[in-house]
Specification:
This protein is an alpha+beta fold. The protein is built from 1 helix and 5 strands. The relative contact order is 0.22.
């Protein structure tokens, strides 16, 4: 996977996929939490973001692991 490409956690029927932006799925998981955990090290390695989607496909949240020029204070983690 190329550096800087965001990693998306997207619904796939009753399962969840980890998928790089514009690419093919990397892995499938039974829960959104498991998919998010699998996406995190990929995003850290590639200095990108994990973009978490809702079951309807809308973006729910994102976490940056890259070179954010103006990083906000992270209150979630």
């Amino acid at each position: 996977m190329a550096k800087g490409k965001n990693v998306h956690v997207v619904p796939n029927g009753k399962n969840w996929q980890v998928k790089p932006a514009g690419g093919k799925p990397v892995s499938n998981h039974k829960t959104q939490t498991a998919a998010t955990k699998a996406a995190k090290p990929i995003a850290q390695k590639n200095k990108s973001e994990v973009v978490i989607h809702r079951p309807n496909g809308q973006i729910r949240d994102s976490d940056s692991y890259g070179n954010d020029p103006n990083p906000p204070k992270d209150t979630k983690h």
